Amino acid sequence: MAATPRFLRGAAAMPLLRIRWFKYAAPRTFFPLAGKLAPWFAAVAAVSCVIGLYLSLFVAPADARQGDAYRIIFVHEPLAWMALFIYAVMAFWGAMVLVFDTRLSGMMATALAPTGALFAFLALWTGALWGKPIWGTWWAWEARLTAEMLLLLLYVAFAALHAAIDNPRLADRAAAVLALPGMMSVPIAYYAVQWGNSQAHTAPLGLDSVSSLPAATLVSTVLMAFACWMYSIAASFWRVRSLILERERTSDWVMRYVRTLR
């Protein structure tokens, strides 16, 4: 018998790949996976944060114009980046809710919102801490800080709208409808410095300046951003597990799981 052509073997394997992929789209199967992965992401986040902070505070050279005051950007910039990135991911899961009406998609969007709001809030505070010695004021209505404040308000509005609706599936769809138009704030916040002639410190990883950055500055910034990313995944996984238990509390598998904890 002739061997099966390679392209037919690949085509035959596609249903298996789809089954494996969509297997974890159900809350019941994603729940144990998130529980296994979350501690690993948290551990990687902790190690990356410790190393990144050490390089930022003790190894990276001082800025020629701002001195040591500029070191706040090693925390501020990753927080601001992740606040934007998390909103984009949250809006993606919101789109999945509207298109496919999947339960886990709504839970993922809801689980991401608190972490995104926290990062946006901390980005505003670290921006103010940087601005005080540089501008002489805690706050300036410049483009980037204002866009970051708008992003924080969008996170709060998303969470408030979701909490105001008792039906979880209806709340997921309503919050998704709010999140998608808010995506316009992401490019506005990112390009606020260029569009608004902002006084904010430009990102240390700008594509036009990466080659000129000291190695310690580049590595420490990347590590801090990576730590924020890993923390975001761990926090969202732990939070989505709580949401799954709350929404699926009448399911037999949840009742069995709860009994094992007693």
Using brief descriptors, characterize the structure shown:
mainly alpha; 77% helix; globular; disordered N terminus
Structure description:
With about 260 residues, this protein is mainly alpha-helical. It has one domain. The chain is about 75% helix and about 0% strand. Helix 3 runs parallel beside helix 9. The N terminus is likely disordered.
Write the layout of secondary structure elements.
Elements (H helix, E strand, L loop, with lengths): L5 H18 L3 H33 L13 H28 L2 H33 L7 H22 L3 H15 L2 H6 L1 H5 L18 H33 L4 H10 L1
Helix pairs in contact: 2-9, 3-4, 3-5, 3-6, 3-9, 4-5, 4-6, 4-9, 5-6
Measured distance between first and last alpha carbons = 58 Å
The sequence of SSEs as H and E is HHHHHHHHHH
Radius of gyration: 22 Å
Q: Strand pairing plus helix content: what structural class?
A: mainly alpha
Tell me, rounded to a whole number, the average pLDDT.
Answer: 82
Unreliable residue runs: 1-8, 11-19, 196-211
| Range of strand content | under 5%
Q: What about the largest sheet?
A: none
What is the β-strand count? 0
* Proportion of residues in helical segments: over 70%
* Number of H/I helices: 10
Please give the domain count. 1
What general form does the structure show? globular
